[in-house]
Design brief:
The protein is an alpha/beta fold.
């Protein structure tokens, strides 16, 4: 399964950079993952748009108003998409001010990480960790069980 994880803005905090790198490294064992730092929401929408050179993607935006999954439900969602869908995923974390209505309408899914508000850079790390956790659940790896 090809997955792109995009975020808008530069990462300045070394701790966030280190955690991002760690989860990208872990995820590489399970999926073809491409991290993308983008400059703006229009750049994200352009990337998500179908073109003659690129197939459509499943655009998933992190949004507090989105669907909430347990870790197991998220793993099942990814598994279903992997087994029945041929489109690559594009997960996106917006800027600190959130996504516009135009971006939300372009998305295949709005995904919420919970009811609490997270800083956008931390939301990226949580998303990467949950992607990693989902793949370990699907592969029966003990990471999810805390062993």
């Amino acid at each position: 399964m090809k997955i792109r994880v995009a975020w808008i803005g530069k990462t300045k905090d070394p701790a966030i950079q280190a955690l991002t790198a760690e989860y990208l490294k872990r995820l590489s064992a399970y999926s073809q993952l491409e991290p993308l730092a983008l400059g703006s929401e229009p750049a994200l929408l352009k990337l998500a748009a179908r073109t003659s050179n690129r197939p459509p993607c499943t655009l998933v935006l992190l949004d507090s108003r989105g669907k909430q999954f347990s870790s197991e439900e998220f793993a099942c969602f990814l598994d279903e998409q992997q087994n029945h869908g041929s489109q690559p995923f594009l997960f996106a974390v917006g800027p600190a001010s959130g996504f516009s209505e135009q971006a939300r309408k372009a998305a295949s899914l709005l995904l919420s990480l919970g009811k609490m508000t997270l800083p956008h850079e931390l939301a990226r790390v949580v998303l990467l960790e949950q992607l990693y956790r989902a793949f370990t659940i699907l592969k029966g790896h003990p990471y999810h069980l805390g062993h």
